[in-house]
Write a structure and sequence with these properties.
By secondary structure, the chain is mainly α. It has a single domain, classed as Non-ribosomal Peptide Synthetase Peptidyl Carrier Protein, Chain A. The protein is built from five helices and no strands. Helix 1 crosses helix 5. It is globular, with a radius of gyration of 12 Å. The mean pLDDT is about 95.
């Protein structure tokens, strides 16, 4: 099944909100992970959760290569839509 970039952005925002225990709905999609308060350990964990939820292999280094919600969501949407 394919996913849009917007759907993936929403998923990541909800994930980060739950990890950071915040209700803020205004997570900027163009800020780097560290500026959002997400550290390298959490990026590795998030990659694993993405693998489980989206049924796709995600190398945690991709989150470094694509350092914002928008960049990574765009890349993940492309990966997911290629396999359908």
């Amino acid at each position: 099944m394919g996913y849009s970039q917007a759907e993936i952005e929403d998923w990541i925002k909800k994930y980060i909100q739950s990890v950071l225990e915040t209700n803020s709905t205004a997570l900027p999609v163009d800020c780097e992970w560290t500026d959002l308060g997400v550290d390298s350990v959490e990026l590795v964990i998030m990659a694993g959760v993405i693998e489980d939820d989206f049924d796709i292999a995600v190398d945690p280094h991709l989150l470094v290569d694509y350092p914002t919600i928008r960049d990574f969501s765009r890349h993940l949407a492309t990966m997911l839509n290629r396999r359908t």
